[in-house]
Amino acid sequence: MSTIELTKTGIEGLDDILNGGIVKNSTTLISGNPGAGKSILGLQYIYNGVELFDEKGIYLTFEENAADLREAAESIGFENWQQYVEDGQINVYDKQVLLRENDFGAALDILLEDLDNEEYERLVLDSLTMFQLFFESEREKRTYLLKFTDILSENNLTTLMTNEQGTVFPGTDIGLENFLTDGNIYLLQTPTDSGVNRYVWVAKMRKQNIDSDIFPMEITQGGLTVHKNASAFSMMGEDESPL
């Protein structure tokens, strides 16, 4: 039986519940409602790739410009972000580049040169919600999403795609993209009198045994931390899994 190669996220606690990391060359969807920490997880994944594992990364953002992305990264404690960008270890494509032609085919052509040179091992697309605005129909969106994920896998990239979710409870808001990706991770938050409680739930990972409990998570200086003690509550019943 062949051994499954894994890509470590470097995020404390997350690799443990993933039983070592994300399957290499796979595409994982990171879903959550606004403020859940999706973009921070993406930044942390790319930054840790260079900082901890000597793996170069590509960050695609349809929502930020490069300066805003740098500010966000440095504000959370990723102080070497800009140095890695200038060194070419992190390659940023921001909204000014990706939305220039208002056409996904043109944006994809811009990316192909870097994707083909095999220098990069990690990629983040932030966000799939904005990516979908390129397309007029569900069929066209599905066709291009499949094409894009195939290209990423063929170029040996282990990819995270963030996705805006309109509801707190994942089981009530399941889109086509959840079924077209190899893994699904949900970032959940519930309001309290003193703020919010945050949780992470790994709902699916193909080719991999995972811990599917819901785990507490916090965002501090340095990014996300997942705590290994499972949450005392469940967001849904045993028979309400979305996948």
Overall structural class, as computed from helix and strand content, comes to alpha/beta
- From the 3D structure, determine the CATH topology of the domain at 26-187: Rossmann fold
Q: Radius of gyration in whole Å, from Cα?
A: 17 Å
How are helices and strands ordered from N to C?
EHEEHEHHEHHEHHEHEEEE
CATH class of the domain at 26-187: Alpha Beta
Q: At CATH's second level, what is the architecture of the domain at 26-187?
A: 3-Layer(aba) Sandwich
Report on this model:
This protein is α/β, with parallel strands linked by helices and 243 residues long. The protein has a domain at 26-187: P-loop containing nucleotide triphosphate hydrolases (Rossmann fold, 3-Layer(aba) Sandwich), CATH 3.40.50.300. It is built from 9 helices and 11 strands. Strands 5-4-6-7-3-8-9-10-11 form a 9-stranded mixed sheet, with helices on both faces. A two-stranded antiparallel sheet has the order 1-2. The longest helix is centred in the middle third of the chain and has 17 residues, at 138-154. It is globular, with a radius of gyration of 17 Å. Residues 233-243 have low confidence and may be disordered.
